[in-house]
Design a protein that fits this description.
It contains 13 helices and 14 strands. The chain is α/β, with parallel strands linked by helices and 409 residues long. Strand 9, helix 11 and strand 10 form a beta-alpha-beta unit. The protein starts with a strand and ends with a strand. 57% of the residues are buried.
Length: 409
Amino acid sequence: MKRVVVTGMGAITPLGNSVEQFWDGLTHGKNGIGTITYFDVAGQKYTLAAQVKDFDPLTCMERPAVRKTDLFVQYALCAAAQAMEQSGLNGQNIASEELGVCFGSGIGGFNTFCEEYKHLLDGGPRKVSPQFVPKMIYNIAAGNIAIKYQAKGSCIAVSTACATSTTAIGEAYRAIKHGYQTAMICGGSEAAITPLSLAGFGNCMSLSSSQDPNAASLPFDQRRHGFVMGEGAAVLVLEEYEHAAARGAEILAEVVGYGSTCDAYHVTAPDPEAGSTARAISQALQDVEIADYTRLYINAHGTGTKLNDKTETAAFKKALGDHAYEAHISSTKSMTGHMLGAAGAAEAIACVQALRSDIVPPTINLLQPDPECDLNYTPNNAVKTPLAYAISTSLGFGGHNACVAFKAV
Protein backbone atom coordinates (compact mmCIF):
# COMPACT_ATOMS: atom_id res chain seq x y z
CA MET A 1 0.00 0.00 0.00
CA LYS A 2 1.14 3.54 -0.76
CA ARG A 3 1.44 6.31 1.83
CA VAL A 4 -0.64 9.41 1.15
CA VAL A 5 0.21 12.95 2.16
CA VAL A 6 -1.29 16.43 1.87
CA THR A 7 0.82 18.84 -0.19
CA GLY A 8 -1.63 21.66 -0.91
CA MET A 9 -4.74 23.32 0.54
CA GLY A 10 -7.07 26.10 -0.50
CA ALA A 11 -10.15 27.65 1.07
CA ILE A 12 -12.95 30.10 0.31
CA THR A 13 -14.96 30.43 3.53
CA PRO A 14 -17.17 32.70 5.63
CA LEU A 15 -14.06 33.47 7.71
CA GLY A 16 -11.80 34.45 4.82
CA ASN A 17 -10.76 33.54 1.32
CA SER A 18 -7.49 31.76 2.03
CA VAL A 19 -6.34 29.00 4.35
CA GLU A 20 -4.43 31.58 6.42
CA GLN A 21 -7.48 33.81 6.90
CA PHE A 22 -9.71 30.82 7.59
CA TRP A 23 -7.37 29.42 10.22
CA ASP A 24 -6.80 32.80 11.85
CA GLY A 25 -10.57 33.23 12.15
CA LEU A 26 -11.00 29.77 13.67
CA THR A 27 -8.27 30.14 16.26
CA HIS A 28 -9.51 33.57 17.30
CA GLY A 29 -13.12 32.44 17.61
CA LYS A 30 -14.40 34.72 14.86
CA ASN A 31 -18.08 34.35 14.04
CA GLY A 32 -18.71 34.27 10.29
CA ILE A 33 -22.50 34.35 10.67
CA GLY A 34 -24.52 37.49 9.94
CA THR A 35 -27.69 38.82 8.35
CA ILE A 36 -28.18 37.63 4.78
CA THR A 37 -27.36 40.32 2.22
CA TYR A 38 -27.98 38.37 -1.00
CA PHE A 39 -31.72 39.06 -0.89
CA ASP A 40 -34.25 40.86 1.30
CA VAL A 41 -34.98 38.91 4.49
CA ALA A 42 -37.05 41.60 6.22
CA GLY A 43 -39.93 39.93 8.03
CA GLN A 44 -38.65 36.43 7.23
CA LYS A 45 -38.27 33.65 9.81
CA TYR A 46 -34.72 32.76 8.71
CA THR A 47 -32.49 35.79 8.32
CA LEU A 48 -28.97 34.57 9.15
CA ALA A 49 -26.32 32.74 7.14
CA ALA A 50 -22.55 32.41 6.98
CA GLN A 51 -21.83 34.13 3.67
CA VAL A 52 -18.50 34.34 1.88
CA LYS A 53 -17.32 37.97 1.95
CA ASP A 54 -15.25 40.04 -0.49
CA PHE A 55 -14.99 37.23 -3.02
CA ASP A 56 -13.64 38.17 -6.46
CA PRO A 57 -13.59 35.31 -8.96
CA LEU A 58 -11.38 37.37 -11.27
CA THR A 59 -8.45 36.60 -8.96
CA CYS A 60 -8.36 33.11 -10.45
CA MET A 61 -10.59 33.17 -13.55
CA GLU A 62 -10.97 35.13 -16.77
CA ARG A 63 -14.14 37.20 -17.15
CA PRO A 64 -15.71 35.01 -19.89
CA ALA A 65 -15.30 31.96 -17.63
CA VAL A 66 -17.02 33.77 -14.77
CA ARG A 67 -20.07 34.42 -16.95
CA LYS A 68 -20.27 30.74 -17.85
CA THR A 69 -20.02 29.31 -14.32
CA ASP A 70 -22.21 29.17 -11.25
CA LEU A 71 -20.90 30.63 -8.01
CA PHE A 72 -20.20 27.17 -6.57
CA VAL A 73 -17.82 26.48 -9.47
CA GLN A 74 -16.13 29.85 -9.01
CA TYR A 75 -15.53 29.08 -5.34
CA ALA A 76 -14.18 25.66 -6.31
CA LEU A 77 -11.77 26.96 -8.93
CA CYS A 78 -10.38 29.65 -6.64
CA ALA A 79 -9.83 27.22 -3.78
CA ALA A 80 -8.23 24.75 -6.19
CA ALA A 81 -5.89 27.46 -7.50
CA GLN A 82 -4.60 28.08 -3.97
CA ALA A 83 -4.14 24.37 -3.29
CA MET A 84 -2.37 23.65 -6.55
CA GLU A 85 -0.06 26.63 -6.15
CA GLN A 86 0.94 25.47 -2.68
CA SER A 87 1.44 21.88 -3.84
CA GLY A 88 3.79 22.89 -6.64
CA LEU A 89 2.36 20.21 -8.94
CA ASN A 90 2.48 21.12 -12.61
CA GLY A 91 2.90 19.67 -16.08
CA GLN A 92 6.64 19.23 -15.53
CA ASN A 93 6.54 17.11 -12.36
CA ILE A 94 3.45 14.93 -12.83
CA ALA A 95 1.98 13.31 -15.92
CA SER A 96 -1.59 14.33 -16.75
CA GLU A 97 -2.74 10.72 -16.53
CA GLU A 98 -1.38 10.42 -12.97
CA LEU A 99 -3.37 13.41 -11.67
CA GLY A 100 -7.04 12.91 -10.83
CA VAL A 101 -9.95 14.80 -9.31
CA CYS A 102 -12.48 13.73 -6.69
CA PHE A 103 -14.71 16.69 -5.90
CA GLY A 104 -18.32 17.25 -5.01
CA SER A 105 -21.22 19.43 -4.02
CA GLY A 106 -24.28 18.65 -1.97
CA ILE A 107 -26.57 20.67 -4.22
CA GLY A 108 -24.64 22.06 -7.18
CA GLY A 109 -25.61 25.19 -9.10
CA PHE A 110 -28.65 26.14 -7.06
CA ASN A 111 -28.39 29.87 -7.87
CA THR A 112 -28.41 29.06 -11.57
CA PHE A 113 -31.33 26.68 -11.14
CA CYS A 114 -33.42 29.34 -9.39
CA GLU A 115 -32.50 32.06 -11.91
CA GLU A 116 -33.22 29.98 -14.99
CA TYR A 117 -36.52 28.65 -13.64
CA LYS A 118 -37.61 32.25 -13.14
CA HIS A 119 -36.62 32.96 -16.76
CA LEU A 120 -38.75 30.02 -17.86
CA LEU A 121 -41.77 31.23 -15.92
CA ASP A 122 -41.38 34.84 -17.05
CA GLY A 123 -40.53 34.35 -20.70
CA GLY A 124 -40.95 30.72 -21.72
CA PRO A 125 -38.38 28.17 -22.91
CA ARG A 126 -36.59 30.55 -25.28
CA LYS A 127 -35.46 32.65 -22.30
CA VAL A 128 -33.60 29.77 -20.64
CA SER A 129 -29.85 30.14 -21.11
CA PRO A 130 -27.97 27.54 -23.18
CA GLN A 131 -25.47 27.61 -20.29
CA PHE A 132 -28.14 26.45 -17.82
CA VAL A 133 -27.23 22.77 -17.66
CA PRO A 134 -23.41 23.08 -17.77
CA LYS A 135 -23.60 25.76 -15.08
CA MET A 136 -25.93 23.81 -12.79
CA ILE A 137 -24.98 20.13 -12.75
CA TYR A 138 -23.11 19.22 -9.58
CA ASN A 139 -20.26 17.38 -11.35
CA ILE A 140 -19.24 20.49 -13.29
CA ALA A 141 -16.92 21.79 -10.55
CA ALA A 142 -14.92 18.56 -10.79
CA GLY A 143 -14.93 18.85 -14.57
CA ASN A 144 -13.74 22.45 -14.58
CA ILE A 145 -10.94 21.67 -12.13
CA ALA A 146 -9.79 18.77 -14.31
CA ILE A 147 -9.84 20.96 -17.42
CA LYS A 148 -7.88 23.75 -15.76
CA TYR A 149 -5.11 21.46 -14.51
CA GLN A 150 -5.21 18.90 -17.35
CA ALA A 151 -5.97 16.17 -14.83
CA LYS A 152 -6.60 13.23 -17.15
CA GLY A 153 -6.74 10.57 -14.46
CA SER A 154 -10.04 9.61 -12.86
CA CYS A 155 -12.43 12.54 -12.44
CA ILE A 156 -15.18 11.65 -10.00
CA ALA A 157 -18.00 13.84 -8.74
CA VAL A 158 -19.24 12.93 -5.27
CA SER A 159 -22.50 13.85 -3.55
CA THR A 160 -23.23 12.41 -0.13
CA ALA A 161 -25.10 15.47 1.12
CA CYS A 162 -23.31 17.08 4.07
CA ALA A 163 -20.67 14.32 4.05
CA THR A 164 -19.75 15.08 0.42
CA SER A 165 -16.27 16.51 0.67
CA THR A 166 -15.16 14.15 3.44
CA THR A 167 -16.20 11.30 1.16
CA ALA A 168 -14.30 12.96 -1.70
CA ILE A 169 -11.11 13.17 0.37
CA GLY A 170 -11.50 9.60 1.52
CA GLU A 171 -12.04 8.21 -1.97
CA ALA A 172 -9.08 10.24 -3.27
CA TYR A 173 -6.99 8.77 -0.44
CA ARG A 174 -8.01 5.25 -1.45
CA ALA A 175 -7.21 5.91 -5.13
CA ILE A 176 -3.65 6.87 -4.24
CA LYS A 177 -3.18 4.29 -1.48
CA HIS A 178 -4.07 1.45 -3.86
CA GLY A 179 -1.94 2.80 -6.68
CA TYR A 180 -4.57 4.02 -9.13
CA GLN A 181 -3.39 7.65 -9.07
CA THR A 182 -0.27 9.52 -8.02
CA ALA A 183 -2.07 12.69 -6.91
CA MET A 184 -5.66 13.85 -6.50
CA ILE A 185 -7.32 17.26 -6.25
CA CYS A 186 -10.20 16.73 -3.84
CA GLY A 187 -12.78 18.58 -1.77
CA GLY A 188 -16.15 20.24 -2.17
CA SER A 189 -17.98 23.46 -2.91
CA GLU A 190 -21.36 24.96 -2.13
CA ALA A 191 -23.21 28.19 -2.92
CA ALA A 192 -26.84 27.63 -2.06
CA ILE A 193 -27.93 30.54 0.12
CA THR A 194 -31.17 31.31 -1.73
CA PRO A 195 -34.77 31.96 -0.66
CA LEU A 196 -35.77 28.52 -1.94
CA SER A 197 -33.07 26.63 -0.05
CA LEU A 198 -33.83 28.49 3.19
CA ALA A 199 -37.51 27.69 2.77
CA GLY A 200 -36.75 24.05 2.08
CA PHE A 201 -34.32 23.45 4.93
CA GLY A 202 -36.43 25.59 7.23
CA ASN A 203 -39.65 23.76 6.51
CA CYS A 204 -38.01 20.42 7.27
CA MET A 205 -37.15 21.84 10.71
CA SER A 206 -33.38 21.88 10.18
CA LEU A 207 -32.50 25.59 10.44
CA SER A 208 -31.93 27.89 13.39
CA SER A 209 -34.46 30.73 13.42
CA SER A 210 -32.38 32.88 15.75
CA GLN A 211 -31.95 36.53 14.84
CA ASP A 212 -28.77 36.74 16.94
CA PRO A 213 -25.55 35.54 15.23
CA ASN A 214 -24.13 34.55 18.61
CA ALA A 215 -27.16 32.43 19.49
CA ALA A 216 -27.68 30.74 16.14
CA SER A 217 -25.12 27.97 15.49
CA LEU A 218 -24.80 26.34 18.91
CA PRO A 219 -23.21 22.88 18.64
CA PHE A 220 -23.39 20.79 21.83
CA ASP A 221 -25.21 23.57 23.70
CA GLN A 222 -28.58 22.69 25.21
CA ARG A 223 -30.03 25.85 23.60
CA ARG A 224 -29.33 24.54 20.08
CA HIS A 225 -32.25 24.37 17.69
CA GLY A 226 -30.88 24.01 14.16
CA PHE A 227 -27.99 24.74 11.84
CA VAL A 228 -27.09 27.94 10.01
CA MET A 229 -26.44 27.73 6.28
CA GLY A 230 -22.92 28.49 5.15
CA GLU A 231 -21.13 28.40 1.81
CA GLY A 232 -17.69 28.27 0.22
CA ALA A 233 -15.19 25.73 -1.03
CA ALA A 234 -12.21 23.81 0.29
CA VAL A 235 -9.63 21.82 -1.65
CA LEU A 236 -6.81 19.49 -0.63
CA VAL A 237 -4.13 18.09 -2.90
CA LEU A 238 -3.27 14.54 -1.88
CA GLU A 239 -0.14 12.89 -3.20
CA GLU A 240 1.72 9.62 -2.96
CA TYR A 241 4.45 10.09 -0.38
CA GLU A 242 7.44 8.93 -2.41
CA HIS A 243 6.47 11.14 -5.34
CA ALA A 244 6.07 14.17 -3.07
CA ALA A 245 9.35 13.50 -1.28
CA ALA A 246 11.27 12.97 -4.51
CA ARG A 247 10.30 16.40 -5.83
CA GLY A 248 10.95 18.12 -2.49
CA ALA A 249 7.35 19.09 -1.80
CA GLU A 250 6.39 20.46 1.60
CA ILE A 251 4.35 17.77 3.33
CA LEU A 252 1.59 19.28 5.46
CA ALA A 253 0.21 16.09 7.03
CA GLU A 254 -0.24 12.41 6.28
CA VAL A 255 -3.64 10.87 5.59
CA VAL A 256 -3.81 7.65 7.58
CA GLY A 257 -7.41 6.46 7.44
CA TYR A 258 -10.89 6.71 6.02
CA GLY A 259 -14.26 5.29 7.00
CA SER A 260 -17.53 5.31 5.09
CA THR A 261 -20.82 3.84 6.29
CA CYS A 262 -24.58 4.37 6.07
CA ASP A 263 -27.16 4.41 8.82
CA ALA A 264 -29.80 2.98 6.46
CA TYR A 265 -32.27 4.41 8.96
CA HIS A 266 -33.98 7.67 7.89
CA VAL A 267 -33.71 10.25 5.11
CA THR A 268 -32.91 13.18 7.43
CA ALA A 269 -32.47 11.94 11.01
CA PRO A 270 -29.31 10.16 12.20
CA ASP A 271 -29.70 6.75 13.80
CA PRO A 272 -29.83 7.53 17.55
CA GLU A 273 -28.01 4.27 18.28
CA ALA A 274 -25.02 5.79 16.43
CA GLY A 275 -23.65 2.39 15.46
CA SER A 276 -22.85 3.21 11.83
CA THR A 277 -21.35 6.59 12.67
CA ALA A 278 -19.12 4.92 15.24
CA ARG A 279 -18.13 2.28 12.69
CA ALA A 280 -16.99 4.98 10.22
CA ILE A 281 -14.77 6.45 12.95
CA SER A 282 -13.40 3.02 13.82
CA GLN A 283 -12.66 2.28 10.16
CA ALA A 284 -10.71 5.54 9.84
CA LEU A 285 -8.64 4.64 12.90
CA GLN A 286 -8.19 0.92 12.26
CA ASP A 287 -4.56 1.31 11.15
CA VAL A 288 -3.73 4.05 13.66
CA GLU A 289 -2.09 3.31 17.01
CA ILE A 290 -2.79 6.22 19.32
CA ALA A 291 -0.66 6.00 22.44
CA ASP A 292 -2.02 9.16 24.05
CA TYR A 293 -5.58 10.24 23.29
CA THR A 294 -4.97 13.70 24.74
CA ARG A 295 -2.99 14.23 21.52
CA LEU A 296 -6.03 13.48 19.35
CA TYR A 297 -8.11 16.32 17.89
CA ILE A 298 -11.59 15.58 16.56
CA ASN A 299 -13.34 18.08 14.32
CA ALA A 300 -16.93 17.05 14.92
CA HIS A 301 -19.72 17.37 12.38
CA GLY A 302 -21.46 19.32 15.16
CA THR A 303 -24.31 20.99 13.29
CA GLY A 304 -26.20 22.33 16.29
CA THR A 305 -29.32 20.29 15.63
CA LYS A 306 -30.96 18.47 18.52
CA LEU A 307 -30.40 15.00 17.08
CA ASN A 308 -26.97 15.34 15.46
CA ASP A 309 -24.98 16.47 18.47
CA LYS A 310 -26.12 13.86 20.97
CA THR A 311 -25.89 11.12 18.32
CA GLU A 312 -22.36 12.17 17.44
CA THR A 313 -21.41 12.23 21.12
CA ALA A 314 -22.69 8.68 21.45
CA ALA A 315 -20.70 7.68 18.35
CA PHE A 316 -17.45 9.03 19.79
CA LYS A 317 -18.02 7.04 22.96
CA LYS A 318 -18.81 3.84 21.06
CA ALA A 319 -15.79 4.18 18.77
CA LEU A 320 -13.23 5.35 21.35
CA GLY A 321 -14.60 4.04 24.64
CA ASP A 322 -13.38 5.98 27.68
CA HIS A 323 -10.69 7.57 25.49
CA ALA A 324 -13.45 9.80 24.09
CA TYR A 325 -13.21 11.82 27.30
CA GLU A 326 -9.49 12.42 26.74
CA ALA A 327 -9.67 13.73 23.16
CA HIS A 328 -9.92 17.39 22.22
CA ILE A 329 -13.10 17.96 20.20
CA SER A 330 -14.69 21.03 18.64
CA SER A 331 -17.24 22.08 16.06
CA THR A 332 -15.98 24.81 13.78
CA LYS A 333 -19.52 25.12 12.40
CA SER A 334 -20.10 27.38 15.39
CA MET A 335 -18.07 29.90 13.36
CA THR A 336 -18.55 28.93 9.70
CA GLY A 337 -22.12 27.75 9.79
CA HIS A 338 -22.82 24.61 7.82
CA MET A 339 -21.03 24.78 4.47
CA LEU A 340 -22.99 21.69 3.34
CA GLY A 341 -21.01 19.89 0.62
CA ALA A 342 -17.92 21.99 1.36
CA ALA A 343 -18.03 21.47 5.12
CA GLY A 344 -15.99 18.28 5.36
CA ALA A 345 -13.06 19.58 3.32
CA ALA A 346 -12.97 22.87 5.24
CA GLU A 347 -12.96 20.88 8.47
CA ALA A 348 -10.23 18.57 7.13
CA ILE A 349 -8.12 21.68 6.53
CA ALA A 350 -8.84 22.70 10.13
CA CYS A 351 -7.53 19.28 11.21
CA VAL A 352 -4.32 19.68 9.22
CA GLN A 353 -3.79 23.18 10.57
CA ALA A 354 -4.43 22.00 14.11
CA LEU A 355 -1.71 19.38 13.72
CA ARG A 356 0.71 21.88 12.21
CA SER A 357 0.23 24.45 14.97
CA ASP A 358 -0.73 22.32 18.00
CA ILE A 359 -3.83 24.48 18.43
CA VAL A 360 -7.38 23.19 18.95
CA PRO A 361 -9.92 25.66 17.56
CA PRO A 362 -12.89 26.33 19.83
CA THR A 363 -16.61 25.72 19.74
CA ILE A 364 -17.73 29.31 20.23
CA ASN A 365 -20.89 30.37 22.08
CA LEU A 366 -20.93 27.07 24.00
CA LEU A 367 -22.36 28.55 27.20
CA GLN A 368 -24.82 25.91 28.39
CA PRO A 369 -23.37 22.47 27.61
CA ASP A 370 -25.95 19.76 27.04
CA PRO A 371 -25.53 17.09 29.77
CA GLU A 372 -25.92 14.48 27.02
CA CYS A 373 -22.94 16.04 25.21
CA ASP A 374 -20.43 15.66 28.04
CA LEU A 375 -17.12 15.36 26.16
CA ASN A 376 -14.38 17.99 25.90
CA TYR A 377 -15.89 20.23 23.21
CA THR A 378 -13.37 23.08 23.73
CA PRO A 379 -15.81 25.82 24.71
CA ASN A 380 -15.26 29.39 23.51
CA ASN A 381 -11.46 29.61 23.41
CA ALA A 382 -8.75 27.86 21.42
CA VAL A 383 -6.38 25.58 23.33
CA LYS A 384 -2.64 25.21 22.76
CA THR A 385 -1.70 21.56 23.27
CA PRO A 386 0.56 18.94 21.63
CA LEU A 387 -1.31 17.02 18.90
CA ALA A 388 -0.33 13.93 16.94
CA TYR A 389 -3.52 12.84 15.18
CA ALA A 390 -6.74 14.43 13.98
CA ILE A 391 -9.99 13.10 12.57
CA SER A 392 -12.89 14.84 10.89
CA THR A 393 -16.38 13.37 10.97
CA SER A 394 -19.26 14.18 8.61
CA LEU A 395 -22.88 13.05 8.56
CA GLY A 396 -25.32 13.66 5.71
CA PHE A 397 -29.01 13.38 4.87
CA GLY A 398 -29.67 9.87 3.64
CA GLY A 399 -27.66 8.40 6.49
CA HIS A 400 -24.20 8.99 4.99
CA ASN A 401 -21.28 8.86 7.44
CA ALA A 402 -17.67 9.61 6.58
CA CYS A 403 -14.50 10.09 8.59
CA VAL A 404 -10.92 10.89 7.56
CA ALA A 405 -7.84 10.62 9.79
CA PHE A 406 -4.62 12.63 9.63
CA LYS A 407 -1.21 12.29 11.27
CA ALA A 408 1.21 15.10 12.05
CA VAL A 409 4.55 15.07 10.21
